[in-house]
Write a structure and sequence with these properties.
The longest helix is centred in the middle third of the chain and has 18 residues. By secondary structure, this protein is α/β, with parallel strands linked by helices. The protein has 23 helices and 21 strands. It starts with a strand and ends with a helix.
Amino acid sequence: MAWIAGVDGCKAGWIAAILDLEADTPPILRVVTGFAELLAGSPALIAVDMPIGLPDLIDGSGRGPEQLVRPLLGERQSSVFSIPARAAVEALDYGEACQRALATSQPPRKVSQQGFHLFPRIREIDALLRTEPPQRERVYEVHPELAFATMRGAPLTHPKKIKGTVNPAGMAERQALLVAAGLPPETVRAQPPRGAAADDALDALAALVVAQHILAGRGRPFPDPPRRDSHGLPIAIWTYRPDLNPAHDLALQDTPMTDRPVPRPMIEAAAQRIAGHARVTPVMRLGSGAFGSDADISLKLECLQHAGSFKTRGAFNNLLSLDLPAAGVAAASGGNHGAAVAYAARARGVKATIFVPEISPAAKIEAIRRFGAEVVIGGAQYDDAQAACDRFVAETGALKIHPFAASETIAGQGTLGREWQGQEPDLDTVLVAVGGGGLISGIAAWFAGTKVKVVGVEPEGSRALQAALQAKGPTDVTVASVAADSLGARNVGPLVYEVCKDTVDHVVLVPDSAITQAQVTLWRDFRVAVEPGGAAALGALLSGTYKPAAGERLGVLVCGANIDLTKLATLVG
């Protein structure tokens, strides 16, 4: 048969995730004692988590591929070991290996004990490829953490292990990414074969995903092109280009791949998952002439959602699609995301710990506590709260629910777009407020490829998405706005950018005065009480920042009802 495999080392030898390219069957997991056993089966391609190609001298912190890959992994950089020169790897004694490493590296570096344990397997593959040159074109070096980061569009948020013990949150994060990449859930969550651990199996499956992409022409080596060692073996760590549309047919792939991080089927699945947990919120049709406009206008009242905002959708999709550890869930939030996670966690019967910045309004903190979560003040600004949350997750193994930089969150928010289209099938344009970008990412992912134009609305003093689109990549911005507690992200991050760069038509900026005017209008004319962030999209229409064409069917999203009513009373006089 024609087959490919993703391979990782394990206690019993090697664990291989094998995919038959000629049969409509899921991948199988198999443990073998020797790598030669895999090569004897004439594979089309093997992607293996083990160094291939050993230079004679090391300049810097390991081989060139390792130095190139580490910056892409965020907090997981330490997972990439510093592999020494060939002479050190060939040493059978640890002390001798250190001596040889010191003599062949600049600056001089010893060998870590953990790295030394890899040497027998490195030598095994090295010997096979040196004696069988044709196999060199079939075997590719990969690194699981790089593969997972490529799947996610950003570095992973949870370590795989904490102090040598498997971290349930890290395992759940990796399992979700493999399923989103197209691998069958039953394979991803299956017990590994005897002789291999559960994390070994996930690493082999991640290598299989990379192997599929390499076979389909999407492979990406570090460095590019790969270098060769003195024996002709390639020196490169491979991942793939998720945004590349190959010119040839992808029929060889057993599982569907996508060039969009959050495709429609993922949103459809989220909608089925959260049905009965999130409300179907109403649309208020105002017709032509509303707010002095010639457009045909309607308001989508997502402010009536459970916990007061759209965030409930993403929270439930996370908690219903990921394994929940005993330590519960954790989130950093300006308020709305925290309230939504607390609400969903209470419904699921799990503990929630919410980290909020000092700028969070008292009304939002009270809502979080009302839903039964523990509230921790995590610093002056949102980023400080996120850092405190990350420390807590690393120490406890809690599952972090990110407000925007996670495909599960974005898919959950995308259900709003799906619901909106069902209620208003003839829309031309939708106006959507933007904070971290999870909401507009989900809505834009749903409407991608349709006639509906998605326009983002950001405060003038908080423009992370507009800055990213202009810079052609995520970039930091300063934040100073009346809506900073909900629309105050300093950076949208790579996943939101990748979704929005081709699906959001453009972003408009509104002054704070237009936002507060919209709050007053919504209360005065419709008795709808919303916070500043929830009124921002209407503020773009009232201020003329967005000017619809005559007869344009315009949907305006109203979201975020967690407002201090005394502040609203002050605004309306």
